[in-house]
Amino acid sequence: MTRSELGALGEQLAVDHLMAQGWAILARNWRCRYGELDVIVADPVARTVVFVEVKARSGDGFGGLAYAVPPEKVRRLRRLAGAWLGGQQAHWDEIRLDVITVRIGRRRAPEITHLQGVG
């Protein structure tokens, strides 16, 4: 599996996980001049918009979950979230940044870890 195929599969598994939670997908792979947001979802019960960074891994070769999103990446994601929010007319009571890591192994089912409120 190529790196881009691994990333696409991981993102789809993350989206499936979020939809199973009852969350609505607002955008996928939203881009602007500052970068890209992987998934933007709405939690309708809490009236929260959630910006989700998805990290797909086939192992722990890059340090695992602890190193998935360093502080400089969190700052960039916040900036991107602000750019996306600036173009919206909807109002949310809360805004949050989450990270979903998906470990895809050859011999076992994918492992999904959802960290809420990382930034």
From TrEMBL:
GO MF terms, alphabetically ordered: nucleic acid binding
PANTHER family on file: UPF0102 PROTEIN YRAN
CDD domains: PoNe_Nuclease (cd20736)
Lineage, opening ranks: Bacteria, Bacillati, Actinomycetota, Actinomycetes, Mycobacteriales
Name of the featured protein: UPF0102 protein BST33_06695
Family: Belongs to the UPF0102 family.
NCBIfam families attached to this UniProt entry: PRK12497.1-3, PRK12497.3-1, PRK12497.3-3
Record-linked InterPro entries: Restrct_endonuc-II-like (IPR011335), tRNA_endonuc-like_dom_sf (IPR011856), UPF0102_YraN-like (IPR003509)
